[in-house]
Input
Amino acid sequence: MKKIFKLLVLSGILGMGSLSALPTGVFIGANIGTNLNKTSAVATSNGQVVSGEWRFTFQGDYGVRLGFIWGINNYNAFKITGTYDYSNVSDWAFMQAGASLDYMLSFSDKPNASGVFIGGGYDWGFYDFANAIQPIVDMNKGHKNLPYAQFGFFKAFGETGKAMMQFGIKYPFGQYVSLGGNLADFGFKSNISNVFQLFFAFNYTF
Output
């Protein structure tokens, strides 16, 4: 009786793995997108804005990614991703290495399913822009490393569903530069931040 029970449990586990619409495995991929960056400088007098400049710029972002998808069952999976991206902020080259964890929900149990993902991660910034703001970071008035949340849609392709495209939005928490001060009745604020990033990614699972 115990042997029969063990066989039933084992067959159930194997069956669950074989039915996964999101195949488990290591993946590699690339991404392209755009960052909406915001730069602002504001002067105030007695709490009223007397002069200010706000500039919003879209700047390209390009990267590669490597990770692991764990398909739990027909509709649910987790994705761990390591990323490396290149972009520009305030005309300075900026590179970021990051790691993220996403939950994936498939709308179908077919290999070519589509669905949604949601998660978050952390980016470590370096290169020219990071070097330029390092003195500000040292004063605790800025950040070159930021956590973020992201969500979007995915679409798998092929008989095995190993090829996948993703379109998403990434929202960083925090600002690269956040300066401010007051002198008598006068004050100023200066900020540089990434409002959000739109990205398109493709990856293939082995």
